[in-house]
């Protein structure tokens, strides 16, 4: 069977998904991919007359159930098309199954998925990656509009912006735990946001990409982080061939959710790198630990993720093998761009490109 990659393009209201879909189709078609785009199912139902704000609870419930069943059926239909294509295939879903859970109560979500014959935990496995585009309502308010979607209920006023920001965070929370969830920041230049989308998809399908550094800062926290997602990370480096970095990461959230990811990163030239990621089950994770690099220690750190003024941040507090280090990281922000640091973060220094702060080197055993 030919190579098939399926991703979800999601985000809050007015995030730029429609424009991104056009660019994705054009870019990857030029590399020989057959690109299928699965339409946004909730919009189909809203345009047909269903309203998720209806006070009729039974109508609301049946509508959400219909959306999930249609989403599953559409995705499965496009998978069957992909299986008979002779080219490699990229399937891009304009929102995915887990988006639905952001709009309903947890107990209703459990009932609806049971009726559809699936478990919420299994839905993540349908997708190779999830790209969340941050809503323009958070940090790029001047670009927020309802003109691109006639069924959008979050109007371009203060209350509408507040609702849009809340929806944005709910959607991220719904997808939290997917092994390849990437949050795409807002930028002063929208083209940079689109380029980040292309880069992330290229990483998933294995196309070489220019070497790019994340912006990394050594920081102190001066207050609590509001509305953040917390997880514990255990990171082990494995024995690998020269020029290749292989990492095994276990990420654990409260409530018992665990995701294991095996990542390989290989530089093929001074300016290009290929990264591949795959999720592994607990049994394979334990087996792979037998290949741990004896020259490197396991890293343990607490990760807190949040959005501030349209930019996505990760703050790692290291526990082992160092315990006095807090690193803030934001992806997709160019060196010349300003970063909207939150008030509860005190920046000590930028360490982007400083190899001393690479996880690979932090793990190195001291002689």
Summarize the structure in words.
- The protein has helices at residues 17-29, 41-47, 57-83, 97-101, 106-115, 120-123, 158-175, 190-205, 282-288, 359-362; strands at 4-11, 34-38, 89-94, 129-133, 181-184, 209-210, 215-221, 229-238, 244-252, 258-267, 272-280, 299-308, 311-320, 326-330, 345-350.
- The protein is an alpha+beta fold and 367 residues long.
- The strands form two sheets. It has a ten-stranded antiparallel beta sheet with strand order 6-11-10-9-8-12-13-14-7-15.
- Helix 3 (57-83) packs across helix 5.
Mean pLDDT: 86
Across the major sheet, the strand order is 6-11-10-9-8-12-13-14-7-15
**Structural class per helix/strand content?**
alpha+beta
Q: Helices and strands, in N-to-C order?
A: EHEHHEHHHEHEHEEEEEEHEEEEH
Question: What is the percentage of strand-forming residues?
Answer: 25-35%
Q: Can you summarize the main beta sheet? A: 10 strands, antiparallel
Oligomer: single chain
Q: What is the gyration radius calculated from CA atoms?
A: 21 Å
Number of strands: 15
Intertermini distance: 49 Å
Helix content: 25-40%
Number of helices: 10
* Principal-axis shape: globular
Spans of 5+ residues with little confidence (pLDDT < 50)? 142-154
